């Protein structure tokens, strides 16, 4: 008989697992890892209608994507153009960024798998006599290690030619030059921290779903068990 067990701790762990997976995935796909040095508008021409010049803009660079702006001279406005600069894996600007992409991709795949499995932990609490919470917590810990490796290797690629074109000639490994870090990098770091919190909290979710009170309600024949 299937018992649906819902506790505050198990639900919090499930929601946090889903949030972490999505946060890391969005950060990985974003081009806002590096914010490049300000660039003036095309040909620095004065807008005849307003009497002012267009403000400089900051292009952004991700692991495999970038965002820049294309000036439309006739309309005196700029449109943002975002997309991958690398059509294949080998075209990623730096070997360090290629390694970063691999480590982050593996970590995110594990997190997405755990997030998917966590939805079913309300009905299935064990697999082959092993707690599914403990197994998922272990996988989240492994994913966190992959994410850390990726984030450590990423700054080593700041000396590549692509990064230098965005950050100036003073950019080098672990030196930003004229660039600054974008929200995607900070999101990836925050998601990594939350990944380890999820891994630790999975033990609390397991304790909550296997408590004496839960067992008492199972013995009473209840199929839907909701506890604080």
UniProtKB/TrEMBL annotation:
Alphabetized InterPro entries for the sequence: LHFPL
Membrane topology (UniProt): Multi-pass membrane protein
GO cellular component, one term: membrane
Keywords: Fertilization, Membrane, Transmembrane, Transmembrane helix
Listed PANTHER family: LHFPL TETRASPAN SUBFAMILY MEMBER 2 PROTEIN, LIPOMA HMGIC FUSION PARTNER-LIKE PROTEIN
GO biological process: single fertilization
Ranges annotated as spanning the membrane: 12-35, 96-120, 132-154, 183-203
Family according to the record: Belongs to the LHFP family.
Pfam families: L_HMGIC_fpl
Protein localization: Membrane
Superkingdom of the source species: Eukaryota
Protein name in the entry: LHPL2 protein
């Amino acid at each position: 008989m299937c018992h649906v067990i819902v506790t505050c701790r198990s639900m919090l762990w499930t929601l946090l697992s889903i949030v972490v997976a999505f946060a890391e995935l969005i950060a990985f796909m974003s081009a806002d890892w590096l914010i490049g040095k300000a660039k003036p508008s095309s040909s620095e021409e004065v807008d005849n209608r307003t009497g002012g010049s267009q403000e400089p803009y900051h292009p952004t660079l991700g692991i495999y994507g970038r965002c820049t702006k294309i000036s439309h001279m006739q309309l005196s406005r700029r449109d943002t153009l975002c997309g991958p600069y690398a059509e294949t894996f080998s075209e990623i600007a730096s070997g360090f960024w290629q390694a970063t992409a691999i480590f982050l991709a593996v970590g995110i795949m594990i997190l997405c798998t755990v997030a998917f499995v966590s939805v079913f932990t309300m009905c299935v609490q064990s697999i082959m006599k092993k707690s599914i919470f403990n197994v998922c917590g272990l996988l989240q810990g492994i994913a966190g290690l992959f994410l850390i490796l990726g984030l450590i290797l990423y700054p080593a690629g700041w000396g590549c030619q692509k990064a230098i074109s965005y950050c100036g000639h003073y950019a080098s490994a672990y030196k930003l030059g004229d660039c600054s870090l974008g929200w995607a990098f900070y999101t990836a770091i925050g998601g990594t921290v939350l990944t380890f919190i999820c891994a630790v909290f999975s033990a609390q979710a397991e304790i909550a779903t296997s408590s004496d009170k839960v067992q008492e309600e199972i013995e009473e024949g209840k199929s839907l068990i909701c506890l604080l």
